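re: that chain from earlier
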Amino acid sequence: MLDDHHGFLRSLIIIYFIVVIILSGLLIGRYSNRVDYLVGNIFNDYNLARYLINLIYLDDLHSELILKEGLPIVRVDNSFEQKKDEGSLFAYTLKFITDLPPSFFIVKDDPRVEQVLSKRRDRTKELEEKLLAEGSHQNEKVELDFWQTEPSLSERDLGEIKKEEELKRDENILEEVSRALQGALIGIYHTHTAENYENRGFNARANPGEKGDVVLVGERLRDVLENKYGISVDHSKKVHDITYGQSYIKSLDTAKSMVDGNDDMKMIFDLHRDAIPNGNRNLVTTNIDGEDVAKIMIVVTNDRYGLPHPEWRENLNFARRLASKMDSMYPGLLREVRIINNRRYNQHVHPHALLLEVGGTENTVKEAKRSVELFADVIAALIKEGV
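^ sequence. v structure.
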């Protein structure tokens, strides 16, 4: 038995050196035509070199094809089982290796490889084009406009009631929000960071790389939420539109960074200033409590654009709740809720992610700030209700 044991160890050592010689030959053979002289013709006789070279350089794509087609990896014929007691261990090992079927490696020449690669290239190009198209609000396809409101005849009465209840609401809401919030955050960012009001700058925009008035409006929304209601806000002032066509690609990273790892995030807003061709000031302005205020339009997207957005209906339901609360608290503040068919606008990152258009180029910064002050009251009320 001891002799058998030593014989088995000797066989293993021999196999080890054979494998080392084979691999050395393969590495040399990868870059030299003289492999036959270096490692001998035995590898060609058993087709081993060709098989192992292909195996070593087998990539992910070909592996997927192999697994998908269920190609055999090892083929052992009946004669091998019948003769398992005959011959040496070296012979069995060599036969096992060289019995790998050629189909296992010849898959590299399969025309399906190019078909798969072509589909991947086409899909990648399509996604890139869709993401680039989101850099502008031009050519948006509107599926549905609803909830457009104007101040009603009873707005004055509502205003008087609101004034009477305002102090009481402010006294109660902070305590209730603090209890319901439990560290929740509101996210605010600006995909088009350079947008200005009052038609300042070329196309009512700050210079590329600079922050426009829309950032000041975002700051005002944050200040009211934090100072009046104690609601923690994550407001990003990062510039995303140095290259305008890639602005939504850049802002996607910002939105993800706000949401990822933050289970307490209640809602996240991409705050804009609307650009209306031949802008009509009356379309984007209302009067609440005797002050001119910029109207707010809520923009929601769906999954028809081709970019993943499986939970868009949750975004839509949230938009409806937000619009209803705005309409009940401050009639006229809501311009409309608009569903866009051919954009995604990063709203897939959170079920309560929305795009807000606060006023337009004809509005003043003061009007836009007054608008978000009222909007902060609406947000706080929603949080009190549990969103």
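The domain at 140-384 is CATH 3.40.630.40 (Aminopeptidase).
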